[in-house]
Amino acid sequence: MAQQNARLQAVEERQLKPIYEALDTGNAKSALTQCNKLLKKYPSPPPPGSALSAPANSSTNSRQLITALKILALVRGNKLDEASALTTALLEETPTEDSVLSTLAHSLKPLDRPKDMVGMWVNAWNRSQKECDEMKKRAAKIKGSKGLLEAEISSKMQQIEELGAQAFMAMVKTGHWAMAQSTAFKLYRAFAPPKGQEEAQAPPALRYLYWSVMASLMQSDHPNPPPPVPVLVMIPPPASVKEWEDNRKKEEEEDRKLLEDYVAKHGAPPQTTGPDLSLSRRKKRTLALTLAQRLIETMVETKEAEAIGPQKVLRGMTVERLWLWGDVLRRIAEAGDQDNGPAEESRWLVPNQLLSTPLVHNVANNSLHLEELRADVAKKASDWKQEAETMAMRLDKGNRNWTTFSTFFDAMFKFFKNAGDSPNQDNLPCLVQSPEPPTPKQEGEGADTEKTEQETTPAPEPTKTPLTLAETRKFVYSLAEKDDAKVPTGERASHLGVLEFERRVRNSGLADEGAPNYVDALTAYFDMFGTKAVLLEDLLPYVRELEGDEKAKWDAHLEKIVQSTSDLNTVQQTINILKLQRLSSSSDATTIDSELQFAKHCLKLYIEALPLGKELVSTELQPADDLALLAASALLNAYYIQCQGQAPSEETPALAQDKFVALLLDALVVLEQGASKSRWAYPFRLLLVRLYRLLGAPALALQNFTMANLKGIQHDTLSHHVLSRASTFSLGSAGDLSLINECVESSQIYAIHGVDVSEQLVKAFQFERYSQIAEFVLLEDKVENSLQRDLTKLEHFRMKNVHEGLTPENVEVELVELRFVWSRTHHDNRDFALLPNFQPQGAASIEDITSIGGRPLSKQWFITMLQLWILILHESSEQLWTEEEQTTVLSKLRTFNEADLQQLTAAEQLFFKFSRACIAWLAPHHAPLKHAVMTNAVSTLSAAKAKYAATTNGAAATSVTGGVSNSKAKSNIGKKSNGLSNGTEGTAASGGEGGIGVKVGDMKVFTGMLTLHEPMEVPPIPKDLGEPVKEPPTEILDMLDEFQKLFDDTLAKPTSLPWEHLHVAQMVHETVFVAHLLTARFALGGSKKKTHPSFKPLRVKAMSLLEHAAQEITKLGDAIDFSPETRQKWLQDRRSSGVLDILPDQEVSQVGKTYLESKKKMFEQLGKGMTKAQQTLPKSAAGVPAGTN
Amino acid sequence: MSTLRPFRATDMLKFNNVNMDVWTETYGTAFYLNYLARWPDLCCVEESPSGRMMGYIIGKAEGQGTNFHGHITALSIAPEYRKLGLAKRLTKLLEEISDGVYHGFFVDLYVRPSNAIATEMYEKMGYSVYRTVKEYYGNLGPGSEGSAAEDAYDMRKPLSRDPHRKSVRANGRDVIVSASSVT
């Protein structure tokens, strides 16, 4: 039998190999042919309904596997309708073979069947269980040949366990935590031996109980699975979306009721301290946590350990299981604090009791995770005495982790604060020391020495010193002395421990005579570690607190030190002095002149120090880099101060434009100089990216950005440097796709990220790494709902509009996409900590100074622009939203507040005002048309369905109409998503031959732009619409005049930077685009179009605005050259501040040449693009369906 | 001053200052998560009090029989925090866990011979070249921008389970093996 099976398997493998190969190499067609060929060898599947009665055998399994592969081939070949129908048929058979189900799992997401992803495993699991029960019954009846049946039953049991585990993992992947919890618990009940009956080795099935606990913990944070992502744009939305929304409504209703009850009982709404959770969410959280506790405590056993008294342990204890137990208790205390605030120590006694046992202390020595949890809980429980003593012991034994110091001080100062220096010594924590000093080998630094804690040496008696303030000081100083004696290069932590101790003594206002001079302590530290780059971060917090005489004394000390560049150590010391002085000074005392002097000084030192790094290989950073960065920072700050002085109220004469940007250009030269010497120093690159954008040379910005060579997740955290307001710099209108491509490239990660995380999440469960699971889910949420992801998406969308226009199909698709984006809760993952920020206290940050628009894009900016674009698309679309959507969603979309609008630039505000005015004007006209189109679509669909049913006996009609849409529209679906879309590929409308409509069976029925998937009730036309108007109101036309004025003013203003010229021009282009998009929808095209208001005046005026802008931008580009005169002027200008005097002409000149050439190209190309747009725009802005003219 | 703490999945959102370095590779998300899902205790971070990441180590435990060992997959310290003993502290932690928790025989790592500073640092920590793996890296280091392959040193340090130092040898640089024999 076994041999036969093996032979069968070998045959099957040989047959399937070419199919797998074809699928792997992307040859879907060949895979499909092979599947069909093989399937002919098998009997056809049983008719629906009878499947369950047919026992599964190897032939059935093979057929099902080939069918699953065929489905995959169909999906890859974009034959989704057929794939979906086949999937339904296969699922009706309830396959139980792992390979069949795993193969099918690959197709379910692209087929938009998220529910089946979990459902198919659960069904297979249930079926196997039933089959097993029947086998058992049979076994009970049959007396002979029992052994054979028993072997079968045992193999069936194995299958059941495997299917159950797979079902659990599918729930984990999809965030169905409640289901996962009960599934794991069922597995535990079915497969784990009862308590006390297991063998010495913990059985693997015990883990199911811990899975169940972990799932319950996750459920406490995520009671509901995430909202379904619509894979296909469907009108009306698919059932899964509706179900999710119904659940949400139910929860809202429950919240309302709970709140009413609470208020009735307490007279006021609850006061809570934690995250803003609704009452029903809190209730669910408590339930889930209580369940987790109850479950894990069924595993507790009390053991009598010899030395440490009664000890509670878990069955099959591991570090991660212990951690899980601790975390359950911690979360319960935390939820208690949040729900019934304020925080109370008493709530933390239970977790602390567990986590302060000797067992946990011992295990925590080798597990940073457990130690982290232990320390957190001890702190919340205010277990200060124990903490102080533990930390003192660790420090004494050589632990130099900074948390050990800070926890030690946190704990000790609780005692000092309460009782001054003469407290009851009995209550004070004690330093316990063995009289014999540990051997040098044990004394080494780091966590290893903690292990000696465990090694109890019986004699002699340890000494106990109560830690008074004086004794604590003695102890802390002794650590530093010990380190000095031991490691000649110096351990910083113990010396910083000394500083931190003295700082806390001062800040607590304790009467203290033993204190040394504080500034002396700081200068001693500087003398010791002044040549380390980290010194700035070490000392800055202390130095910034100095005032009056102390500050003067400190400053004098730094002043005394000669700033030299003679060797690597003195260069670093010089850099440290300059940074400490600059970062602890006040911005009030900073002027343009002082900044220029500082920059000049730094640049001089930089050039002097360069020879020190001459011999270094190119992969090394130059030791003097920071001097150039300091010089550039000072120039940028000088520029900023100059901007502040240029407010209109000031009476200073306005600088000419080239004078105004002079300081930025000087900074550019310094940064280019630094980057040329230190190729891999990213601070130069990033600052150059930002400056080139400000200065209107985005191609150079992109070039520098590419040199940073970002990979993976860095695209999410860093692409904002080059993609914020990317549409300002796009040359899409002129056919240059570099920025559009950058959006696609940087969004690739989102397409694969979710899959990656869910696969690893499953692994974390398999390996039982419970400490990781919540973090994985958090990461997934943060990246999936990343603000930068959607900022990039929005910019990509805007750039594409101007580049290639917006077809009617795309209007519908983008509308659904952007609405989905709008419903997300966004996380801001942008890394703002990377730019060097050597600024005086109170000065604007380098981030702000170098941001387009004066600050990084905010969430409000994003939401405002997003809502505006959804409104524009909604107006251009043929969808008439349901009555409910009109009242709830639309009204929310239309809500903007003044503060949010202030986040927009002047040009963006005007664009906003104009678009909204157009929408208000056109809505009464559009609504009846949308209504007519929808009514038409519904009746066409019904008629088509009826006709199809009549011609095909009706049997299969409904199963095909579920996925109507035609081929071209869906051509995206099977392709690898590029991450810019949320999976909502494909479209409701379509037009392979320019036609639009529904597909029923093999008939295609034309309607309007809209394809319906299911019959639906057509919502009524909104009642509050005004009378349809014919002419555009004059105020809309006036806005275009306003735009022209803004454009002209911006170009004429000497204080506007090149990016502003580009920005206002691009906004003009986008405004004109929107004017066409909104008016084109029903205005052009075939004879079926209804009468429409006269759009001509608006269009003519918009076009002349675009023409004007194009001409002016072209002129600006034409005016740039790099003739000998310009070169001379550039050099002269760069010499005017005196900062760059030390740099040779050639190097200064080269930067100018490269920059001006790039800027010229940008302006010329943009001018060309905008000129070209005057011809293409009327067509590209959704005037006509794709494929017709 | 620095705090030693576990590497968390969300640290990927803030490790740029460490990873924007010519020798440091940024891998796909799955790479880091795979390590965390299996050996979270061998993945640690050094963090400054302001919360800035100073450096990290990522490791695993692998091998059969006397070849069972800890492996340093990635170790990187941000430029401004170098020469403070952070790499040493992280390595020491990985060695201790490999020794005390996983009971491995040695710890090993791969390094580009062209990265002389790193090689020297590991030697100071007690590692020695066990063998030279021919054309292990897909290209010559970042400085060269070439596409030719580069060798790797497989460096090892014995742990307490290998008291006779059987996992190391004196002339490792001269023992040359092909990349296919080690992967």
Q: Care to describe what's here?
A:
Chain A is mainly alpha-helical and 1189 residues long. Among the domains of chain A are: 172 residues, Serine Threonine Protein Phosphatase 5, Tetratricopeptide repeat; 125 residues, no CATH class. Helices cover 63% and strands 2% of the residues of chain A. Chain A contains 48 helices and 6 strands. A two-stranded antiparallel sheet of chain A has the order 1-2. Chain A has a two-stranded antiparallel ribbon with strand order 3-4. In chain A, strand 5 and strand 6 form a beta hairpin. The two termini of chain A are 69 Å apart. An 8-stranded mixed beta sheet of chain B has the order 1-2-3-4-5-7-6-8, with helices on both faces. The interface between A and B is large, with 65 and 54 residues. Chain A: InterPro entries: NAA25_NatB_aux_su. Chain A: This is Related to actin cytoskeleton organization protein-Laccaria bicolor. Chain A: It comes from Serendipita indica (strain DSM 11827).
Give unreliable regions of chain B as ranges.
Answer: none
Any idea how many domains of chain B?
2
Q: Can you name the CATH architecture of the domain at 2-173 in chain A?
A: Alpha Horseshoe
**Distance between the ends of chain A:** 69 Å
Question: Low-confidence spans of chain A: pLDDT under 50, at least 5 residues?
Answer: 440-454, 647-654, 954-976, 983-1008, 1083-1091, 1183-1189
Number of helices of chain B: 4
Q: Tell me the span between the first and last alpha carbons of chain B.
A: 39 Å
Assembly classification: heterodimer
User: Helices and strands of chain A: which structural class?
Assistant: mainly alpha
What topology, given as strand order, has the largest sheet of chain A?
Answer: 1-2
Q: What is the overall shape of chain B?
A: globular
CATH class of the largest domain in chain B: Alpha Beta
Mean pLDDT over the full residue set of chain B: 91
Q: Order of strands side by side in the largest beta sheet of chain B? A: 1-2-3-4-5-7-6-8
**Largest interface: which pair?**
A-B, 65 and 54 residues
How would a textbook summarize the main sheet of chain B?
Answer: 8 strands, mixed
Helices and strands of chain B, in order, run as EHHEEEHEHEEE
* Separate helix tally of chain A: 48
CATH superfamily of the largest domain in chain B: Gcn5-related N-acetyltransferase (GNAT)
Keywords (chain B): Acyltransferase, Transferase
Protein name (chain B): Probable N-acetyltransferase 5
Organism (chain B): Serendipita indica (strain DSM 11827)
Pfam family, one (chain B): Acetyltransf_1
